[in-house]
Amino acid sequence: MPSSKATDAAPPAKASTARKRSTKPLEIHFKRAYDAPDPADGQRILADRLWPRGLAKIKAHIDFWAKDVTPSTPLRQWFHQHPEQFDEFRQRFLDELSALDADHNATLTELRKRLTEGPVTLLTAAHRLEDDEAHTHLHVLRDFLESR
């Protein structure tokens, strides 16, 4: 009786739908868009829905504008009216980011790709970015990117 090689072979590996996590931690920095570029910035990514007022595009040294992965206009406006409710803002923004992720948003995909290439500095026009107590959408975006 001839042996069947098909029964001796290991079953084919199942394709994994889970995202591969990088073993290297992401290097994400924050800076105001108006601050001068520095070689340590790595890629400079503007993470604001609106272009910073008074900042010339030619002098901005922006490598990528990730406006689609920022808080929606209604959420941004709500947060400006209720800055004391950061926890609520955080949850709403995380919900928006999760929905973008589920839809395989091209900007989110591009941002993740750039994060694998080395350090990234997320830029915003927000004031008080250096304040330890400051909470901005950049903090939420960073936490979202690091958790996936």
TL;DR of this structure?
The protein is an alpha/beta fold and 148 residues long. It has one domain (28-146). The chain has helices at 5-8, 57-60, 73-81, 86-102, 106-116, 137-147; strands at residues 28-32, 43-46, 64-65, 120-124.
Strand proportion: 5-15%
Distance between the termini: 52 Å
The major sheet is characterized as: 4 strands, parallel
Care to count the β-strands?
4
**Low-confidence sequence ranges:** 2-22
What is the mean pLDDT?
85
Largest sheet strand order: 1-4-2-3
Total DSSP helices: 6
- State the shape: globular
Sheet/helix structural class:
alpha/beta
What fraction, in percent, of the residue positions are helical? Answer: 25-40%
From N to C, what is the helix and strand string? HEEHEHHHEH
Compute the gyration radius: what is it?
Answer: 20 Å
List the domain count as a whole number: 1
Organism: Pandoraea bronchicola
Region (Disordered): 1-26
Protein name: MarR family transcriptional regulator
InterPro entries: YeaO-like
